[in-house]
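Shipment paperwork, digital attachment
Item: protein structure file
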Amino acid sequence: MAELVPTTVVGQAGLHALLRDPGQALIAFDYDGTLAPIVDDPAAAGPEPGVVEALARLGERVGNLAIITGRPAREAVELGGLDGAAAPASLVVLGHYGVERWDSATGELTTADPPEGLALVRRELAGILEAAGVPDAVIEDKGLAVAVHVRRCASPAAAYRSVQPPLLALAQRAGLVAEPGRHVIELRPPGMNKGRALSTLMGEVEAGSVMFTGDDLGDLAAFDAVDARREQGGAGLLVCSGSTEVTGLSERADLVVDGPPGVRRLVEALVALLDS
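Attachment content:
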């Protein structure tokens, strides 16, 4: 079970608590870069082969299974095939960092109205990217947020440096925040973050232990939520879906796995331990 050996004492305690009482556990994952490989086209981000089936088996053994993503909840469900025959029977998908919620038990989606500032962003964004010298950046309109991807640019790092200052200024004028990620900057309402979403879900299900797996800077807030839980005497396990692009999570994680393939093996290892 090399895929499931936390390197920290607090992480080992979190794993032991999960295995001791899986019915009270909350296990949550990011989507992009964690359950799905990062790809040039965000609309083509299908799940890691075998991971949905592994999640379905895990969902049969633990009390609460969730995905917390910056994507719209319905989009993540459709991309991941999370409403198909092979998907977990009991799953909550929190989209837009918790503003949206989809529940597999009912198939229902709850959402919110878009922030007023997005109208300004939509009007000015193309011109701002042109002025910054990166007209080939990809604009992804998520409905409640807008993301600018520079992965397809000739020099993603240089493009990122060029767009970051004007996007920060645009976000401020629009009353939004500009959140950095892996070759992406997202303009979204303040207060939307995975830490708040995870904390709310922990309280809702009265989780006895919590495990969260993520890969990008937006997942640090969820790491903070698990750390806060542990500081209050609770049990938690932090897992990083490792990459060479982001190191902030791996430095804080109790366990680092090798990207989405490693996440799939991690889920399979957890299922095997729960069955042993």
